[in-house]
Here is the input.
Amino acid sequence: MAEIRPTHQILIFFIFAQLLALMVGKIMIDNAQEPVFKALSIAPEEAGSAFNVLYLIGSVILAAIFLIIILLLPIRDILIRLLEFFSSTVSTLIVFFVILFTLNIQSAELIALLLSLALYAAKSAFAPFRNIVAVVASAGVGALIGFSIDPLPTIVFVMLIAIYDVIAVWWTGHMVQFAKKFVSMQTTFTIGVQGTKEVETKRAGKTVIKREPLHLELGTGDLAIPAALIVSVYKIGSFLFPAASFIGSILGLYYILNRAQTEKRVFPAMPSIAIAAIISLLIAFFLTYLWNALNLYQ
Here is the structure.
C-alpha cells in the first residue's frame, strides 16, 4: 500500500478538525437561543463587540506567560500534564455534548464527560490517539470561539494571531520552546506524523532519488483558529463563506508545510493560513456582490 506523505497526513487531520468544528458550530449557531448553548458562549461582550478581540488576544498572551512560568518550575512536567488533561477533556467534552444534546440523548452532559475521559485515557494508553484527541479538542475550541464571536471580530482576531505567531516563533522564540517541550512529552497540544520524503542527490553524474525520514508537527492552535473563522463566517448566511475560508486555509497550510519541509526550518503556520483564508473570503464576498448586482439588472 502506498505511503501517505507526512504533509498529506497533517492535511487530513487539519481537514477533519475543520469539518468537525463546522458541524458542531453550525449546530450551536442554528440553536443559539437554547439556554444551554447561550451559557457556553465565551464572549465577555455582545458577539460583534470589538472588545472581544482584545479579550481573545489578551487571553492568548496571558496563556503564553503562564506557560513560560510553568516551564521555569521544577514540577513543570506535572503541571503540563494537568493542563493538558483539563484543556483536552473540556474541549472534547464540548464536541460530544453538542452532538449528544442535538440527538436528544438523556444525560448528555454525563455521557459526554465519560466519552471525553475515555478518549483521553485511550491517548494515554495508545500513542496514535494523541492526534485524535488533539483534533477533536481543536474542533471544540474552534467551534466555541466561532459560535461566540461574530465574523468581523473573528477576522481581526485571526489577523492578530498571525502577527503574534510570527513574533512568537521568529522573534521571542517562546512558541518554539513550547513546541519542543510538548513534542517531547507527546502532549495533545500538537499533532505529529512520521514518514519519509524523497530527496534528489547526485551520484556518479546521475540523479538518484532516495528517501529520508521526516517528522512534522503542527500546533493545535493552527487547527483551532482557522476552525473558529470557518464557524464564525457561517453566520453570514451562506455556506459559500465557510467553504471559501476552508479552502483558503487548506491551501495556506499546504504551502507552509511544503516550504518547511523544503527549507528544513520552523515556520509559523498561521500567517499563511490566515492570509489564504481571508483572501478566499474576499473573493467570496466579491462574487456574492457581483451575483447580487447582476440579478438586480435582470
